[in-house]
TrEMBL record:
Top-level taxonomy: Bacteria, Candidatus Kaiseribacteriota
Transmembrane regions: 20-42, 49-67, 79-100, 107-135, 155-172
Name listed for the protein in its UniProt record: CvpA family protein
Record's keyword terms, sorted: Membrane, Transmembrane, Transmembrane helix
Highest taxon above the source species: Bacteria
Length: 173
């Protein structure tokens, strides 16, 4: 009997470890996909429009937080509530991007490839931090404990929030 109990414990441990490793890989894949989308956008459209997107994230967040009609957004089912909130935020990002794109001129802006990767990573982290603290993502998807350690604490939200702005300060010339 002890051998079968030991085998069952090993099987359970292996299954749980494999599932948690798969979940963690999936979470990091989400970050890598966001990073790739931001990098493709920056390389295809240019550095100036990329900076406009990063700044539009901030402007849209300010208006999203102050939006007086959030009670009109659906709250059930959770998927609909999530898509309604994300849709409102994306509409605000697009509106501010159009405005900021006219202001941010890329003629005098230089961001190297390393700086672009850093800014894209910080932009992806900003989006994940918003998913944790602003949008109701937790009702749909549970991130792995490794990602939770990076993004769940309220104190970290501030740092992930200001990280793209600090990155722009140091990387853009």
């Amino acid at each position: 009997m002890p051998a079968s109990t030991s085998l069952a414990e090993v099987s359970t441990l292996a299954t749980n470890t494999a599932l948690s490793a798969w979940g963690m890989a999936g979470d990091f894949l989400i970050i890598l996909i966001l990073l790739g989308v931001l990098l493709l956008f920056a390389s295809y459209i240019g550095r100036g429009p990329f900076v406009a997107v990063l700044l539009a994230f901030y402007a849209a967040y300010a208006l999203y937080v102050a939006f007086p009609y959030t009670s009109l957004l659906p709250t059930q089912p959770p998927v609909t509530a999530l898509f309604a909130n994300i849709g409102l935020y994306l509409a605000l990002v697009i509106a501010f991007y159009i405005i900021l794109r006219r202001v941010v001129v890329s003629d005098f802006l230089y961001i190297g490839i390393f700086g672009l990767v850093v800014l894209a990573f910080l932009g992806a982290a900003f989006i994940i931090a918003l998913a944790y603290h602003v949008f109701p993502v937790s009702s749909i998807y549970q991130f792995s404990p490794a990602i939770d350690l990076l993004f769940l604490p309220k104190e970290y939200f501030f740092w992930w929030f200001v990280a793209p702005a600090i990155g722009l300060f140091f990387v853009a010339r």
